[in-house]
Design goal:
The complex is a heterotrimer of chains A (about 200), B (about 625) and C (about 60). Chain A has about 200 residues and is an alpha/beta fold. Chain A has helices at about 15-20, 25-35, 50-65, 75-90, 100-105, 115-135, 155-165; strands spanning about 10-15, 40-45, 65-70, 95-100, 140-145, 145-150, 170-175, 190, 195. In chain A, strand 8 and strand 9 form a beta hairpin. In chain A, helix 2 packs parallel to helix 6 (about 115-135) and helix 3 crosses helix 4. Chain A starts with 7 loop residues before the first strand and ends with a strand. Chain C has a domain at about 5-40: Rubrerythrin, domain 2 (Single Sheet), CATH 2.20.28. Chain C is built from one helix and three strands. In chain C, strand 1 (about 5-10) and strand 2 (about 15-20) form a beta hairpin. Chain C is globular, with a radius of gyration of 13 Å. Classes of the chains: A alpha/beta (about 200), B alpha/beta (about 625), C mainly beta (about 60). Chains in contact: A-B, B-C. The interface between A and B is large, with 90 and 132 residues.
């Protein structure tokens, strides 16, 4: 792995106007081309959509990419999306890195487009440098205990417990009070059906 | 309720509390304490003999205190399990000289005064949190004279009075004279939508609950007159507008305006309500027999004991309800995998929405249980025993007990239990010899980011370490809310602020960083239990070392920002932007000169450093 | 054992007294500006901070 030649692909997302409305994404893409080991740069209107993801897969095959940097939104939303995407193209999902230029840049600096573009370039540089050091990882899987704990025996807890138990799983329903029922049990009728609560 | 009681797959543990939860998605372990009931629930036939002889009478909580119950009682007729419970606080005692009558008459001999309760541990794959909410207490602000006038009651009290199983057998009577009230008023938004009294948000259910109650009155008493005082009527759900219209058609008067004053006629105990009708702009007076306060809903607060939220390390939004993993896309998921929300613990909601959300939460949990296995992100710690000096630090700092202890005498190295490791990286940051490495958040990766950020124009940048769960998400929240702040911040994401190794900070200063911010979760929100306390200790250590070396400690800042605190995130960035301008190039150059003479981590013992660099 | 100690806020320079227990790490918040950059005040600064000396006392 250490001797492998690094081939980084950078995918800059416009996110419609969300990113491109503030950040000069063409400029960011041009800048990315000059970063170390970057061999492919692609700009997309919506990278998370199928056409955008296909561009990534295509570029991985075409340029034998072994690192992918997606310049788009927060990894808290789309990291799983792009990890799957690169995995489908045969790349280890941990060799994908995201630069968050939407939540952390275009949306919070739309009054200063120039500075936002400069910051975006910095975020890409940082992401590419991190990507160059990424290593493939194997996820381990662990068995799941076939039981659920439901805390609270009000109407929500009761419903959840029944669903889970009807699904065939052991349920422990814990209620602080001496009976289940919660607040609902103290009601006479419930709207909109005007029927009995118990 | 009955379905739960007889379902073979549900073990119902009432009178019980969750005390501790350990483990991780798919493999939790919960410790549950069953508090003493003093009645063997399985044997109790609910024959009522015990209660009949019990000499103690106390207000009945279920009936909102309108009637009394005994010290040994059934909470309500349909209770599940259908078993009595002894309220030890009010019981006279078991000694024959004191009382003990219930035990004497119990044929099944199921009263056990020595019940100590029990503690059981259960392994579970998933957890659904459905701990609900609490109802606003109008006593706190003497809302509309609630504490002074007996005929001012809450909507919850009304429920009991109109209920066939209630203290008045369903005959609506007013508390002072047990006469059926003819003129009934309702006040909306009591304890809701107020910046000063109760909570600022809309409690969701109170409008429709009042609409329902006016309909109930008219069903029972055609000649009653009902008046609702409101700000807005929120009848937004399916079928709600119909009910609202029916209520109006039945003659209920809706007056837009909340009462400014409520007085009691001392003779008749009637209530005189003064209100500005904002539709007409006129001041009105209403004489009423009874006034019902539509009280709002509040999140549970802890009272000394650890709450379920604390046990599970759940964060809260600013309204005090639990924070979801994503408000739109993962509305029933907790940020911690394997934990889901149902009902009012997430936000005030009615029965239908609670049921809907509970089904959704169950479906999420079923996904997990049905799969039978769970993949864990490859972000765990790795230990290379070659450099290990068996100092024991890693075992001590690990918040999830995933590192077995080393033993110097027996030459036994510590080892990492991968299934339990949550990937916070505190061990890697604290290890004095760099024996522990983190998958996917390696030293090399993080240092490369530090270098990239400081490569150009470093004086204009605030190098910031942000934890994945809170401060990074707080930055996302600032973005989603479009809060504007200066573009000087550069974030480096780690799973936990506990990962921020001293050497990252020193490396940044060595490369000329003017200002470094370490940010993470508030102590109560830390997703790795107490890992964040190690962050603070470490930052304090660096501050004191900076001071010794002649570097201004203020250039290293610390901030706890929750995922919900987008506002705070933006404010901190604005404040630090001001600070940035006070750091001079000369000061930065001086720092670089000072650090040139220092080891990678100034002050770290020579042997450790030698081992680390060997 | 908790004792009263002086703290300084590294954000706004506010100084104040608060309980301190060496054994217990608690979240600290400056009562003046709300920042968490709160440091136990050192008895005597070892060296004069380098660089622009105005900065250390600048009011945030």
């Amino acid at each position: 792995m250490n001797n492998e030649e690094l081939r980084v692909g950078v995918f800059v997302c416009d996110c419609g106007h969300n990113i491109a409305g503030t950040i000069d994404t063409a400029d960011v893409a041009a800048f990315s081309e000059g970063l170390p080991d970057v061999v492919a740069v692609v700009r997309n209107r919506y990278t998370c959509a199928d056409p955008g993801q296909n561009e990534i897969k295509k570029a991985i095959a075409e340029h034998q990419l072994n690192r992918v940097v997606v310049v788009a939104c927060t990894p808290k939303i789309h990291e799983p999306t792009f990890r799957n995407c690169v995995a489908e193209a045969g790349l280890n999902p941990y060799l994908m890195e995201m630069a968050n230029v939407r939540e952390h840049c275009s949306w919070v600096h739309f009054q200063d487009k120039e500075a936002a573009t400069a910051k975006a370039k910095d975020l890409v540089r940082s992401a590419v440098e991190r990507a160059r050091k990424l290593e493939a990882q194997e996820e381990k899987s662990f068995p799941v205990t076939d039981a659920a704990l439901v805390i609270g025996g009000g109407v929500a807890g009761i419903q959840a417990a029944l669903e889970l138990a009807d699904g065939g799983h052991q349920v422990y329903l814990v209620e602080k009070q001496p009976t289940i029922g919660g607040n609902m049990a103290a009601l006479d009728k419930t709207y909109p059906t005007m029927d009995c609560s118990i | 309720m009955m379905d739960v009681g007889r379902h073979p797959k549900i073990k119902t543990l009432v009178n019980s509390e969750v005390e501790e939860v350990s483990g991780f998605v798919g493999n939790f372990r919960a410790r549950i304490r069953r508090n003493p009931r003093y009645v063997v629930a399985e044997d109790c036939t609910a024959c009522d003999e015990c209660a009949r002889v019990c000499p103690v009478a106390v207000p009945d909580e279920y009936q909102q205190g309108f009637s009394s119950r005994k010290a040994i009682y059934l909470p309500f007729p349909q209770a599940v399990p259908s078993a009595y419970i002894l309220d030890m606080e009010n019981c006279l005692g078991s000694e024959p000289i004191a009382c003990g009558r219930c035990a004497e008459v119990c044929e099944k001999k199921c009263i056990d005064f020595d019940d100590q309760g029990e503690v059981l541990e259960v392994p579970v794959g998933s957890i659904v949190v459905a701990t609900g909410m609490k109802v606003y207490d109008p006593r706190m602000n003497d809302e509309y004279g609630y504490t002074r006038f007996d005929n001012v009651i809450t909507s919850m009290e009304f429920e009991r009075l109109i209920c066939a199983g209630g203290p008045s057998a369903g005959h609506l009577v007013r508390p002072t004279d047990r006469r059926t009230p003819k003129r009934i008023g309702f006040v909306q938004c009591v304890g809701s939508r107020s910046a000063t009294r109760g909570v600022p948000y809309c409690s969701n259910i109170c409008c429709m609950n009042t609409v329902k109650q006016t309909l109930q009155i008219h069903e029972h008493y055609q000649d009653a007159s009902t008046t609702v005082f409101y700000m807005d009527i929120r009848a937004f759900g399916k079928g709600f507008e119909d009910l609202y219209r029916r209520s109006r058609d039945n003659g209920t008067r809706y007056v837009r305006g909340l009462p400014g004053n409520v007085e009691e006629d001392p003779e008749t105990r009637d209530l005189v309500v003064t209100v500005e009708n904002t539709t007409t702009g006129k001041l009105e007076q209403h004489r009423l027999d009874m006034l019902v306060l539509a009280v709002g809903l509040e999140p549970h607060k802890g009272n000394g004991k650890k709450t379920v939220d604390e046990i599970l390390n759940l964060s809260h939004t600013s309204d005090g309800f639990v924070l979801e993993a994503h408000p739109k896309l993962k509305p029933v998921d907790a940020p911690t995998r394997g934990i889901f929300f149902a009902g009012c613990v997430e936000a005030p909601k009615d029965v239908k929405d609670s049921v809907t959300q509970a089904s959704a939460a169950a479906a999420r949990a079923l996904n997990l249980l049905g799969a039978g296995k769970v993949q864990v992100e490859a972000i765990t710690a790795m230990l290379d025993t070659e450099q290990c000096i068996m100092c024991g630090v890693c075992t001590r700092v690990c918040p999830v007990n995933a590192i077995t202890a080393s033993n110097k005498k027996q030459k036994q190295f510590p080892s990492i239990i991968e299934a339990a490791c949550a990937g916070c990286g505190t061990c890697a940051a604290e290890c004095p010899t760099d024996t522990i490495a983190m998958r996917h958040f390696s030293d090399a990766q993080i240092l490369a980011q530090v270098e990239a950020i400081l490569a150009e124009d470093r004086m204009s940048k605030i190098l910031t370490f942000a934890c994945n769960w809170c401060s990074y998400a707080g930055g996302d929240m600032a973005g989603t809310s479009r809060l504007q702040y200066p573009p000087s911040v550069r974030l480096i994401r780690t799973m936990c602020s506990g990962r921020v190794d001293e050497k990252f900070i020193w490396h940044a200063f060595r490369l000329g960083a003017p200002l470094v911010l370490v940010s993470g979760c508030h102590f109560s929100d830390c997703h790795y239990i107490d890992a964040v306390t190690w962050t603070q200790k470490r930052v304090e250590k660096v501050w004191s070392r900076m001071e010794k070396l002649g570097i201004r400690p203020g250039r290293l800042q610390l901030e706890w920002i929750s995922a919900a605190e987008g506002q705070k995130f933006a404010r901190v960035m604005r404040e630090l932007h001001e600070h940035l301008h006070r750091v001079t190039p000369a000061e930065v150059e001086e720092t670089i000169r000072i650090l040139e003479k220092q080891p990678p981590v100034p002050g770290r013992s020579k042997t450790a450093v030698a081992a680390a660099t060997a | 054992m908790a004792e009263m100690k002086r703290f300084e806020c590294l954000r706004c320079d506010h100084r104040y007294m608060a309980e301190y227990d060496r054994k217990v790490t608690v979240e600290r918040t400056c009562p003046s500006c709300g920042s968490n950059s709160v440091k136990l005040e050192s008895k005597k600064p070892a060296k004069k901070p380098a660089g622009n000396t105005n900065t250390a006392s600048a009011k945030g």
